[in-house]
Each structure stands twice: as structure tokens, then as C-alpha cells.
Amino acid sequence: MIPWLPREPLFPQAETALSEPNGLLAAGGDLSPERILAAYKRGIFPWYSAGDPILWWSPDPRMVLYPQALKVSRAFAKVLRNKPYAVRLDTGFSAVISACATAPRSGQPGTWITAEMQAAYCRLHELGHAHSVETWVDGELVGGLYGIAIGRAFFGESMFSCASDASKIALAHLCVYLQRRGFGIIDCQMETAHLASLGAHAIPRRDFVEQLNRLTGEGDPPARWPHDGAKDAWRTSA
Questions:
Q1: Which domain holds residue 44?
Q2: How far apart are CA 230 and CA 133, in angstroms?
Q3: 1 within some domain
Q4: pLDDT tens digits for range 94-133
Q5: What is the DSSP track for 176-225?
Q6: Residue 4 is assigned to a structural domain of this protein
């Protein structure tokens, strides 16, 4: 059994989450900015299907990527240096989250990025908490990702790509941008082989929560990221 959340944005301790299914912690509540931010600070995130109650998760172990640890192959480094693309921040958040919601996923017939979730994260974007990193080619959005920044921690939510390497380009520029701003961690939530190939690895949940306790209390107040903040980030860092 898992608890049903009260009206207040309160959560059980992450270590009380179930081991099967891994990380299921609580149900109910809402997707208000206050509740979502309170969850992320504690290593908890919402994930559920349309028609189901809101479910809150904190898996153990936790997949993370340290910005300086991104793995870049020689071939991809050449793409980053030479391919004619532009990377922008926070200029197409709603388009990015909509594209992530409709992108086909292997083994997933539907999407967890419901209309309710999209509205909630767009509201967080308006408040300066949620951000998008976008890859553009010839004025067309071809890939990107979105997530939430709290202090010096970035919580990655989803990415999409409709052109070769487009989402990886966004991630590479995000890592450089976060390094420049002193961010310490990117939360990737679940373990996948693809994320591991990019340098992410699993750490115990208790270590993850300990890092969040420090990192989420640091940094600048919420604000939109400058749209050209990642301009030539990789080219100038290589």
C-alpha cells in the first residue's frame, strides 16, 4: 500500500518507496507548482497515465549525469563542431513538450506527458522553473529537451528528435551551459542503455537525495534562461 497525499504539498520520505514497482511512493495530490517543486527537491517526480490518479516516484538506484561527464564520440564531436544548427534556450518550451509527448517510444503505446502534465510544466516555465533546450535547423525545430532547474540541480524530463543527433546536440549544449553556471547534477530518473552510453550512471537514492539537499539550496532565483545562452557553447568549449 502507498499513502494518498494530503491537500498540502507534503510527501513521505523517499526511502519509503516500494521496491516493486521500483520507486512508487504515493498517489493523489495535484500538479500545482508548489507541489511539483517540493517533490523534485526531495528526489520525487510525477509519472502516470491518462485516466489514472497522479502517481509519485523515487526509484532506487537513480540515473544521473554529471554535466562534465558527458561522453562524446569523435564522430559526434565532429557533428557538434561542424553541423549547421542553432541551439536556443526557452524560445519554444510548449513546442518542445508537445513534441516530446507525441514522439514515438519503443515499447510505449501511449504517453505519460498528458495534457494535464503539459499545462503544469508550461506553468512552471512561465514562473522561471522549467526550461527547454532546442535544436533548430533552417528555422525549424528538429529536436530538444525540457526539464526543471532548482538551485544547481537540473531535472531532465524528456527529449525528442526528428533529425539525426538533434536531441543529443541539445543535451551536449545543455551540459556546457550547466557547467558554466556551476550546476552539479542532471537527474535522468530511470536507467536506460542510451543514457549510459552518454555517460550517465546509476547511484544509490540516498546519495542522490543527499546531493539534492545541498544543490537545490544554491544558485540563482528562478528566471527564464537567455535564449542565446547556449550559442556556440560546444564549439567554444571544444
A1: 14-59
A2: 8
A3: no
A4: 999 999 998 865 555 446 899 999 999 999 999 999 999 9
A5: HHHHHTT--EEEEES--HHHHHTT-EEE-HHHHHHHHHHHTTSSPPP-PP
A6: no
pLDDT tens-digit readout, 36-68: 999 999 999 999 998 999 999 999 999 999 999
Tell me, yes or no, whether 94 and 203 share the same domain.
yes
Q: Are residues 123 and 178 in the same domain?
A: yes
Q: Which residues of 106-125 are buried (b: 16+ CB within 10 A; e: fewer)?
A: eeeeebbbbeebbebbbebb
Q: Nearest Cα to 83, choosing from 41, 133, 32, 137? A: 137
Same domain? 95 vs 115: yes
Q: Which of 70, 93, 175 is nearest to 141 (CA)?
A: 93
What is the distance between the alpha carbons of residues 104 and 15, in angstroms, rounded to a whole number? 33
User: Residues with Cβ < 8 Å from 224, sequence gap 6 or more?
Assistant: 90, 128, 131
| pTM for this prediction | 0.94
Query: What's the total number of domains in the chain?
Result: 2
Same domain, 164 and 131: yes
Residue pair 206/59 in contact by the 8 Å Cβ criterion:
no
190 in the same domain as 92: yes
What CA–CA distances, in Å, run from 60 to 22, 126, 143?
7, 31, 29
Query: What's the distance, Cα to Cα, between the start and end of the chain in Å?
Result: 50
Residue 5 domain-assigned? no
